[in-house]
Amino acid sequence: MGTPLDIALVIALIVAFIWGTFFVLSRITGWRRLAARHPGVAPASGAKRGLTSVMFPPCLGYNHCVLYAADDEHLHLRIMHPFSLCHPPVSIPWAAMESVERVPSAFLGARVRVGDISFRIPRHVVRDELTLREAAAAPTPEPG
Prior knowledge:
By secondary structure, this protein is an alpha+beta fold. The chain has a single domain (about 5-135), classed as Roll (PH-domain like). The protein has three helices and seven strands.
């Protein structure tokens, strides 16, 4: 059995490794940049809420640990505790999303692009915004 100092050192190394992993992940995925540009705000009452997954290219995902809320103004994302270390909440205005589009996928069927950051998310999370954008892009019939 190790001395108390050895045990404390091992615990400190484990904590530092976990913190470092979350720190690097938040930087590689772009989550940190999203949070800097679009800091979290409280969702409106009546916002659609749930638990979801988010995938950042090429294959870095937050699987079943992202809480979302979608209201008329924002898509709110936050990582569940204790995984939220180094991942501040994000509230992306719908207007700041350069694109929200369907992609062929049974699970992560929507791609969202905000500036230089893109991610995939289940289609039901952004369904209302997809519907609005697709209706706006649809050709209008010629009168008469």
